[in-house]
């Protein structure tokens, strides 16, 4: 049928030639009929209707052969199939020539993404694709291989995307031969670097240039090169190691078409250059995460098309310019983390009617935030005013014009009363008001209104109220360090993090723990520490299968640990410190296979240390101090290589200290290994950190933010015997070691001098003997030492800081002598009684060299100054001119003061 139609049209075309001379309408129809005839003929020819060119098919198959494709994404690339129907290949519908290759890796999820990535070699067979205009190899992994220079010979390319593809080495200058290129993206290849960018100027049609994460620090003329591409509209230069080479005098930067400029995450340490304010077409400007300094210029008001402005995390000072109010198109303004000293919030911000995001957090801004700042901000969705000295001063009946989605105002003064205007916000998802100075009871409307909010942060205020009838529904609730009281609230299955530590909640925990839900609970973090909760732990923990952290320390809980706690297979941290719990530790806890922290200290647990604890190789913290544990320290504790805190103090443990403790590699020097998610976890805007009360340097202190860096062993106040294993002294990363109040014997080994990071050492109240090794003088970080009440003897080693310790550190060792004790060692008395002349003769060399050094130093210093003045005439003139100026100013000052004195005396005499 198509062939018949083509033949018919061709015949009509021929016949029309004879008729057209006599018919004016046919003259108009003839070209159209012939054109249709040609098109249909081409389409009806075999091998022309978008069919693949054989030469290009073979080229693509050679390309495939060089590529690694673990997920068989290119399975459709075979000889049996038309290459224009292959996955990721686009052909010209008429000629059948390959014009586009879409070989980027689609993101589904992290695990699949890594499996789908292409790799291997990029074959030069691509050169045979003469009409290829679009090549996308982004989001793959080519293992640090260089970008093939032959790509610069593919003259038809208009679009080239090699971003996030694992390329390394120098960017080939041959890319400058792609004279028709419109889009070039080499970003997110952290192994790439540029030696010069002269080739960029040849890309006269380039509109998009992405070089983010490409090292440009060797190219000092990057700005000049890029400014020679007048067609450029998007320029991405974030994280390129750019520094001071951003010449402010370059007022002629020819970026007339530039609408997008990203210079974030570099090392610029200067004021914003003036040429930036000539880029009047800019819609997006990102200068964040640099070291820009000076004031934020009023010239920003000239960029009238600006929609996105990010100046956060720099060193800008002074006020926010009022001209910001002229940017009527602005949707995003972020000035976070700048000093902005002596600045206030300008009322002109209230004119930004299109503003959706306003960030001024982490600044030194002062003054009030009032209704006038939000006059026309009806589109505002995100407000960040955290960690400032700003104060909200709005009327109690104020109705804001906006509907916020995020309010981050922690450490901002909200006023003592609970902000009533919050109840007008129906779209709020994140509410952060920690440390905001609220001293009030939660209003009746609050908890019902808050049920749709994802995260609520109200910690470190003085908010009170009874939550016993409240059902909490937010996924994250941090109500810690407030004044809430009464029985515990109820939880919905949506709650992921509940932190109500440091309040005054009372009553039993069973109503909360044993409540039944229609849906599976998502609760992962439960922190109810430092309250007045009582009763037993309740055997209902199987209802909370998602729990990873339980902190119930410092309450009035009693009874045994229930077996159902062993059902919490995802548990990473368990802290029951400072309660009245007793009995054996249940073996069911051995089912918690990822446990990294266990703190059962200050209770009444008894029995031996359970075998499962010393076999749990994921443990980083074991704190069992102040209980009634008996038996020996199990040898298998040495296989816990991730251990950073081992605290078994104040129990009734006996036997010897295991010699294999040196196998705990995290206590040796070097970076700490292990799963730091044990000690810290991130949930939205919340960083939840575990904390421990540790006795270091003789005092109890809470360790939280720096807990991940602490390395300590405390085996004090037990019944341990035998010698201190030499192997223990190879734990060179250990910071605190306490073996006091035991029955240890033997000598302190000289190897103790290798514990280079040791800050606190307590070996007091044992039966140690022998001399204190001289190697202890090598412990330069040591600032807390207690060797008292042993049988040590001999001279206390001379060291840089050992003599600075109190004599109490060595008290109770009758045979010890030397500073800081007042007891002299044998021979010290002879030294003091020796004739003065002998001591003077001994001291003479030191005295002589002192005077020799002083004399030579005086000579060098004197002639260093006088010689310069003698040989350099200009310096000499400047120096004596300076002295003359001082003389004149001193004379004038004295004359003025004398005159004033005479005047006062004259007035006094006249009176």
Q: What can you see in these coordinates?
A:
The N and C termini lie far apart (131 Å). The chain contains eleven helices and 56 strands. A hairpin with a 2-residue loop joins β44 and β45 (686-689). It has 911 residues and is of the alpha/beta class. The protein has a 28-stranded mixed β-sheet, with no helix packed on it. It has a 14-stranded parallel β-sheet with strand order 25-28-31-33-35-37-39-41-43-49-51-53-55-56.
Q: What features would you highlight for this structure?
A:
single chain, alpha/beta, 28-stranded mixed sheet, 14-stranded parallel sheet, globular
- Could you give the distance between the termini? 131 Å
Q: Kindly state the mean pLDDT as a whole number?
A: 87
Spans of 5+ residues with little confidence (pLDDT < 50)? Answer: 1-31, 33-48, 831-852, 870-875, 898-911
Q: Portion of residues in helices?
A: 10-25%
Shape: globular
Largest sheet: 28 strands, mixed
Strand content: 15-25%
How many distinct beta strands?
A: 56
Which value, in Å, is the CA radius of gyration? 39 Å
Look at the helices and sheets and give the structural class. alpha/beta
- Helix count equals 11
Oligomer: single chain
């Amino acid at each position: 049928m198509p062939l018949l139609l083509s033949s018919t049209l061709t015949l009509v075309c021929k016949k029309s030639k004879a008729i057209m001379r006599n018919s004016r309408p046919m003259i108009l129809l003839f070209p159209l009929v012939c054109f249709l005839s040609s098109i249909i003929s081409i389409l009806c020819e075999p091998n022309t209707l978008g069919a693949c060119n054989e030469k290009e098919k073979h080229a693509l198959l050679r390309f495939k052969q060089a590529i690694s494709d673990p997920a068989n994404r290119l399975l459709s690339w075979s000889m049996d199939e038309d290459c224009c129907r292959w996955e990721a290949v686009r052909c010209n519908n008429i000629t059948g020539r390959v014009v586009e290759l879409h070989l980027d890796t689609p993101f589904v999820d992290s695990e699949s993404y890594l499996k789908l990535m292409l790799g291997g070699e990029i074959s030069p067979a691509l050169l045979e694709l003469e009409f290829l205009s679009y090549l996308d190899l982004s989001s793959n992994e080519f293992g640090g291989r260089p970008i093939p220079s032959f790509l610069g010979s593919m003259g038809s390319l208009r679009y080239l995307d090699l971003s996030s593809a694992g390329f390394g080495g120098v960017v080939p200058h041959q890319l400058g031969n792609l004279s028709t290129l419109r889009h070039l993206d080499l970003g997110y290849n952290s192994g790439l670097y540029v030696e010069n960018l002269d080739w960029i100027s040849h890309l006269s049609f380039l509109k998009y240039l992405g070089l983010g994460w490409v090292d440009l620090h060797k190219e000092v003329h990057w700005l000049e090169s890029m400014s020679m591409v007048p067609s450029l509209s998007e320029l991405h230069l974030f994280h390129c190691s750019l520094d001071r080479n951003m010449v402010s005098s370059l007022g002629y930067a020819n970026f007339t078409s530039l609408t997008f400029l990203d210079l974030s995450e570099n090392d610029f340490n200067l004021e914003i250059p003036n040429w930036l304010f000539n880029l009047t077409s800019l819609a997006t400007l990102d200068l964040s995460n640099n070291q820009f300094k000076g004031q934020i210029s009023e010239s920003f008001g000239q960029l009238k098309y600006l929609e996105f402005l990010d100046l956060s995390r720099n060193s800008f000072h002074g006020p926010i310019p009022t001209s910001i109010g002229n940017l009527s198109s602005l949707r995003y303004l972020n000035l976070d983390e700048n000093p902005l000293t002596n600045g206030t919030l300008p009322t002109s911000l209230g004119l930004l009617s299109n503003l959706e995001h306003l960030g001024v957090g982490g600044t030194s801004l002062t003054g009030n935030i009032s209704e006038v700042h939000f006059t026309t901000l009806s589109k505002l969705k995100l407000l960040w005013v955290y960690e400032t000295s700003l104060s909200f001063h709005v009327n109690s009946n104020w109705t804001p014009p906006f509907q916020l989605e995020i309010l981050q105002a922690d450490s901002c003064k909200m006023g003592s009363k609970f902000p009533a205007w919050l109840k007008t916000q129906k779209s709020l998802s994140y509410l952060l008001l920690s440390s905001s100075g609220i001293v009030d009871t939660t209003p009746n409307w609050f908890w019902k209104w808050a049920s749709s909010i994802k995260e609520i942060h109200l910690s470190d205020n003085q908010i009170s109220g009874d939550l016993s009838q409240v059902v909490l529904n937010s996924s994250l609730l941090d109500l810690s360090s407030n004044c809430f009281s009464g029985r515990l609230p109820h939880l919905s299955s949506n709650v992921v993090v509940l932190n109500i530590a440091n309040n005054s909640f009372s009553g039993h925990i069973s109503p909360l723990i044993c409540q039944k839900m229609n849906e599976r609970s998502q609760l992962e973090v439960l922190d109810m520490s430092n309250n007045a909760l009582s009763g037993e732990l309740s055997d209902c923990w199987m209802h909370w299968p998602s729990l990873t952290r339980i902190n119930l320390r410092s309450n009035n809980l009693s009874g045994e640990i229930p077996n159902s706690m062993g059902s919490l297979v995802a548990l990473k941290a368990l802290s029951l410190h400072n309660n009245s719990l007793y009995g054996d530790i249940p073996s069911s806890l051995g089912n918690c296979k990822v446990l990294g922290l266990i703190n059962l200290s200050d209770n009444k647990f008894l029995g031996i240390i359970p075998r499962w604890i010393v076999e749990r190789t994921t443990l980083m913290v074991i704190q069992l101090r102040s209980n009634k544990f008996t038996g020996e320290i199990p040898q298998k504790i040495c296989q816990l290589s991730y251990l950073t805190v081992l605290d078994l103090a104040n129990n009734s443990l006996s036997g010897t200290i295991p010699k294999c403790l040196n196998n705990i590699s995290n206590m040796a020097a070097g970076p700490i290994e292990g799963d730091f998610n044990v000690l810290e976890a991130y949930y939205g805007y919340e960083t939840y950190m575990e904390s421990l009360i540790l006795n270091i340097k003789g005092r109890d202190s809470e360790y939280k933010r720096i807990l991940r860096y602490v390395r300590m062993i405390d085996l004090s106040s037990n019944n341990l015997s035998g010698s201190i294993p030499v192997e223990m002294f190879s734990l060179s990363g250990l910071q605190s070691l306490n073996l006091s109040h035991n029955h240890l014997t033997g000598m302190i080994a000289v190897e103790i001098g290798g514990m280079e990071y040791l800050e606190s050492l307590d070996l007091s109240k044992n039966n140690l003997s022998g001399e204190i090794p001289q190697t202890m003088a090598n412990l330069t970080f040591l600032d807390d030492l207690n060797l008292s009440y042993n049988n040590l003897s001999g001279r206390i080693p001379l060291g840089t800081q050992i003599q600075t310790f109190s004599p109490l550190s060595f008290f109770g060792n009758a045979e010890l002598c030397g500073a800081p004790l007042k007891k002299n060692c044998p021979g010290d008395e002879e030294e003091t009684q020796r004739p003065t002349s002998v001591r003077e003769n001994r001291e003479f060399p030191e005295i002589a060299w002192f005077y020799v050094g002083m004399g030579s130093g005086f000579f060098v210093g004197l002639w260093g100054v006088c010689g310069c003045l003698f040989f350099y005439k200009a310096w000499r003139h400047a120096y004596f001119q300076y002295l003359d100026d001082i003389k004149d100013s001193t004379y004038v000052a004295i004359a003025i003061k004398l005159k004033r004195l005479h005047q006062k005396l004259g007035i006094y005499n006249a009176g």
